[in-house]
Amino acid sequence: MDSLTHIVLGAAIGELLAGRTLGKKALLIGAVANSLPDIDFVASMWLPTARDVWAHRGITHSLLFVAVMTPLLTLVAQRFLSNKGLSPGTTASSGMTRQRWLIFFGVELFTHIFIDAFNAYGTGWFEPFSRQRISFHVLFVADPFYSVWLGIALVALLILKARHPARRKWAAAGLLLSTVYLVYGISNKLRIDNHVKEDLQAQHHTYTRYFSTPTPLNSWLWYVVAEDSGGFYTGYRSMFDHRPTQFRWQPKAKRLLKPFMDQPDVHYLLRFSQGFYTCEEWGDTVVFNDLRFGEMKGWEDPKARFVFHYFLQRPDANEVVVQRGRFAGWDSRTLRIFIRRIRGN
């Protein structure tokens, strides 16, 4: 998820687990702890782009990282925060014990890697023992309908006094409503998958692998990909569609990749894409596309290019490869068309 979501999520959890003991400090400590796995962003300062996209959400998003960092953070907290962090009117004997700190940091860190797995990016829960990346494809990386409830709760927690009896209710409400939306997203995904697989069968499209993932900022319009031996069928399906899914054929074009197989960045890209990739030529440049991140306004443009596109002959031109195509070309007209497509038009 985006950084803001981790901050508001961590603050809400911090309030529930330690607000009565630490007061408003629990919000800050929770927000920092929940954001800690994203410390791997510093690797982008020296790693080549392809290596960086593979390293992100790797070891620092693993169960091993949670297991190691939880007791380490607990030792730090016991040394510097256990007594100084007490809220007014609280004694040291009723403060944050070692066990409570372990629970606090364990929940915060695990929640981060857990919710990140609901995006398309892929999360290395089992690093360094396995390269498998977990992707449930339920939430877009920034979904306001998931985060807004936690944001409202945080505003209330910042306004209310440290000992106000309603603080826990606000934190619980924020977490409950965001969780309800997550479950709603899972339900939407299951319904979309049923419809799309029926359409694939009705249109005689065979496939070996399949995934669906939400389009930007919502849980109603979904991008779908079905793989067969030579490439992929891609399309869009809204929760409000009453017509069959229309698919676009995307050839994998492995032949374009062969001249670059000696380059280290290609091997990282292949791992990162989990095999959901195509290659194409833009003029005299060969481009590697990762299909998992969708297309640039693909619901509007049948010839849309992919969000994640990597220039194989120009590695230095790929610094923001994950982000550069997410909202490329968006304007008020695009937004209107996007909303109409969500509504099934």
Topology:
Layout: H1 3-22, H2 25-35, H3 49-55, H4 63-80, H5 98-116, H6 144-159, H7 167-202, E1 209-214, E2 221-227, E3 231-238, E4 247-251, H8 264-273, E5 277-282, E6 285-295, E7 306-311, H9 332-342
Antiparallel strand pairs: 1-2, 2-3, 3-4, 5-6, 6-7
Helix pairs in contact: 1-2, 1-5, 1-6, 1-7, 2-5, 3-8, 4-5, 6-7
Lateral arrangement of strands in the main beta sheet? 1-2-3-4
Q: How many DSSP E strands?
A: 7
- End-to-end CA span: 29 Å
Mean pLDDT: 94
- Please state the CA-atom Rg, rounded to the nearest Å: 22 Å
Oligomer: single chain
- Unreliable residue runs: 89-94
Strand content: 5-15%
Whole-number total of structural domains:
2
Task: Give a description of the structure.
The protein has 345 residues and is α+β, with helices and mostly antiparallel strands. The protein is 43% helix and 14% strand. The strands form 2 sheets. The protein has a 4-stranded antiparallel beta sheet with strand order 1-2-3-4. It has a 3-stranded antiparallel beta sheet with strand order 5-6-7, with helices on one face. β3 and β4 form a beta hairpin. It is globular.
Keywords:
14% strand; 3-stranded antiparallel β-sheet; 345 residues; alpha+beta; 2 domains
Short account of what is shown:
By secondary structure, this protein is α+β, with helices and mostly antiparallel strands. It has helices at 3-22, 25-35, 49-55, 63-80, 98-116, 144-159, 167-202, 264-273, 332-342, and strands at 209-214, 221-227, 231-238, 247-251, 277-282, 285-295, 306-311.
